[in-house]
Amino acid sequence: MKTVSAAIIVVVAAALLSGGAFIVHDDTALFIQVVGCIVGIVGIAGWLMTLRTTKRVDDSK
Fold first, then answer.
1. pLDDT digit string, tens, across residues 10-49
2. Which of 46, 56, 33 is nearest to 5 (CA)?
3. H/E/C letters for each residue in 21-55?
């Protein structure tokens, strides 16, 4: 479940980045996009950490 939570954070960051493109006010759009970048970096780092620490289940037995 931690991997899914991190993936949701990455999707939210993508929404912030794309949503910032539609905001007319330059300073607000820049702020939204910077926040989206920060959230995206944190989300991808968390996602990679959870993928490394999650035990892999072998169901082939």
1. 899 999 889 888 888 889 989 999 999 999 999 899 888 8
2. 46
3. CCCCCHHHHHHHHHHHHHHHHHHHHHHHHHHHHCC
Cα 37 to chain centroid distance, Å, stands at 9
Cα 6 to its chain centre, rounded Å, is 6
This model's pTM is above 0.85: no
The whole-angstrom separation of Cα 17 and Cα 21 is: 7
CA dist 41 and 21 (Å) reads 19
- Among residues 1, 3, 7, the alpha carbon closest in space to that of 39 is found at 7
Q: Could you identify the residue written with the tokens 């912030």? A: 16
Cα–Cα distance measured from residue 28 to residue 1, given in angstroms and rounded to the nearest whole number = 33
